[in-house]
C-alpha cells in the first residue's frame, strides 16, 4: 500500500524540538501533569486512590463505561455504546477510513485540511476529489462545488470542523446543506471535530447531531490540552460502531488503563479545562490580532477562537526556506504553507504560552524587516 508522506508531521518531526518559540502547534498550550491534577481541587487524590487500585491489565477494551458516558454527554443523542475509544483522533480517523473505504469508492475531502482525510482514502484505492476551501470566502468551501463533485457512487464526504490549518468553523446551516446532499446518494459524512470555538462552543454543531450517517472523530489533544494521553474516539450510530469494532480489533486493543482513567478525569473536569482555555485563547487572540494590525507583511482571516490560524506572509522567498531560516536564526517555529499545498501562507499556532507567543511574534516581525 502506497501513501504520501504526512507533510505537517514530517516537518514537525524534524524541527519541533529545535524551537525556542514554538508557535506552530495547534494544541491549546498543553497542561502539565500538575495542572491536570489541580483540576479537581484536591491534587488528584481521588484519581490516584482509584489508580493505585487498578490492575495494569488491558482494562476496558473499548474505553471504560465512565469514559464512554462522559463522551456521550458531548452529543445530543449518542448512546455510550456507540463511542469507541481510539489512539487519539488520528486513530479515530484511521479506524473509520479503514473500515469504510474500499478500492474504487468515490470520496470527497475538504482540501486542505487534515491530511489523513484525503491521503488514507487514496492509499486504500479510493477515487478522491478535493473540495477546496477559498480564502476569499473566509476559508469556506463552496456548496455549489460539492454539487458538482458529488456522484451517485459517492461513499464518503470528509470534513474537518473547525479546519486545520485555517481555524474556520462550518456552521450548522452549512453542515445541513452538506447532509442534504449526502442523503441524496446515501453517503457517509465523516467530520474530524478536534477543534472547538472556545469563545462560544454553542457555535459548533457535531455532525452526529445532524445526520444518522455522520461520523464524529475527536480527542483530548487540542481543545483539552492533553495530547500526551493519546486518547480519542469515534461517535456514530450503532451499525457503524459494530462495523468499526471489527476493524478496531485488528489495529488496537485498548488505549491503556492509565490513559483511560486520565481521559475520564479530564472530561469530568471539562468545564474547568474549557474555562482555562477560553481565557488563554481570547487573551492570545488579542495579542495576535494586535500583531497582525501592526505587521505590514502579514494578513489573516481570523480564526474563530479555534487554536490554529493560517496567515498570509508577504515573503519573496521559498516559504519552507524562510521557515527554516527563521527557526535557525530566531528560534521561532511555524509550519510552512507548502505543507498544505498553500505556499503563500504559514500555520501559526497562537495558543502557545503567552510569553512564547509574544516573543515569537516579535522575532518574526524583526525577521520580516529584512525584506523592507
Ligand atoms: C484535524 C486534526 N485531527 C487530528 C489530529 C491528531 O489528533 P490526535 O493527537 O488526537 O491524534 C490533529 C493534530 O494536529 C488535527 O489537527
UniProtKB/TrEMBL annotation:
PROSITE patterns: AA_TRANSFER_CLASS_1
Enzyme class: transferase
Pfam (any one): Aminotran_1_2
Location of the Aminotransferase class I/classII large domain: 52-363
Keyword list, A-Z: Aminotransferase, Transferase
Alphabetized Gene3D superfamilies for the sequence: Aspartate Aminotransferase, domain 1 (3.90.1150.10), Type I PLP-dependent aspartate aminotransferase-like (Major domain) (3.40.640.10)
EC assignment: 2.6.1.-
Cofactor requirement: pyridoxal 5'-phosphate
SUPFAM superfamilies listed in its UniProt record: PLP-dependent transferases
GO molecular function, one term: transaminase activity
Keyword Metal-binding assigned: no
Origin superkingdom: Bacteria
Tagged with keyword Transcription: no
InterPro entries: Aminotransferase_I/II_large, NHTrfase_class1_PyrdxlP-BS, PyrdxlP-dep_Trfase, PyrdxlP-dep_Trfase_major, PyrdxlP-dep_Trfase_small
Family recorded in the similarity comment: Belongs to the class-I pyridoxal-phosphate-dependent aminotransferase family.
Listed name of the protein: Aminotransferase
Amino acid at each position: 500500500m502506497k501513501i504520501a508522506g504526512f507533510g505537517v508531521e514530517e516537518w514537525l518531526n524534524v524541527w519541533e524540538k529545535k524551537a525556542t518559540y514554538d508557535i506552530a502547534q495547534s494544541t491549546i498550550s498543553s497542561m502539565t501533569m500538575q495542572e491536570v491534577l489541580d483540576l479537581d481541587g484536591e491534587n488528584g487524590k481521588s484519581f490516584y486512590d482509584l489508580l493505585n487500585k487498578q490492575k495494569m491489565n488491558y482494562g476496558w477494551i473499548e474505553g471504560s463505561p465512565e469514559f464512554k458516558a462522559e463522551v456521550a454527554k458531548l452529543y445530543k443523542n449518542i448512546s455510550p455504546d456507540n463511542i469507541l475509544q481510539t489512539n487519539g483522533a488520528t486513530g479515530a480517523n484511521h479506524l473509520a477510513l479503514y473500515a469504510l473505504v474500499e478500492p474504487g469508492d468515490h470520496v470527497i475531502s475538504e482540501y486542505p485540511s487534515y491530511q489523513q482525510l484525503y491521503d488514507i482514502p487514496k492509499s486504500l484505492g479510493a477515487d478522491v476529489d478535493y473540495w477546496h476551501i477559498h480564502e476569499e470566502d473566509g476559508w469556506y468551501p463552496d456548496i455549489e462545488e460539492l454539487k458538482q463533485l458529488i456522484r451517485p457512487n459517492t461513499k464518503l464526504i470528509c470534513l474537518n470542523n473547525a479546519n486545520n490549518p485555517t481555524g474556520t468553523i462550518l456552521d450548522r446551516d452549512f453542515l445541513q446543506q452538506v447532509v442534504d446532499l449526502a442523503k441524496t446518494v446515501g453517503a457517509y459524512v465523516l467530520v474530524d471535530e478536534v477543534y472547538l470555538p472556545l469563545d462560544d462552543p454553542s457555535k459548533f454543531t457535531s455532525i452526529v447531531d445532524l445526520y444518522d450517517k455522520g461520523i464524529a472523530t475527536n480527542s483530548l489533544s487540542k481543545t483539552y490540552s492533553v495530547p500526551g494521553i493519546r486518547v480519542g474516539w469515534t461517535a456514530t450510530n450503532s451499525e457503524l460502531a459494530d462495523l468499526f469494532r471489527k476493524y478496531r480489533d485488528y489495529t488496537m486493543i485498548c488505549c491503556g488503563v492509565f490513559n483511560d482513567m486520565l481521559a475520564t478525569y479530564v472530561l469530568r473536569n471539562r468545564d474547568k479545562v474549557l474555562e482555562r482555555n477560553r481565557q488563554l485563547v481570547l487573551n492570545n487572540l488579542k495579542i495576535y490580532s494586535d500583531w497582525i494590525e501592526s505587521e505590514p507583511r502579514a494578513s489573516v482571516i481570523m480564526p474563530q477562537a479555534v487554536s490554529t490560524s493560517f496567515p498570509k506572509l508577504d515573503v519573496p522567498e521559498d516559504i519552507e526556506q524562510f521557515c527554516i531560516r527563521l527557526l535557525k536564526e530566531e528560534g521561532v517555529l511555524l509550519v510552512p504553507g507548502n505543507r498544505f499545498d498553500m505556499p503563500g501562507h504559514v500555520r501559526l499556532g497562537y495558543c502557545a504560552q503567552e510569553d512564547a507567543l509574544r516573543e515569537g511574534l516579535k522575532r518574526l516581525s524583526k525577521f520580516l524587516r529584512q525584506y523592507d
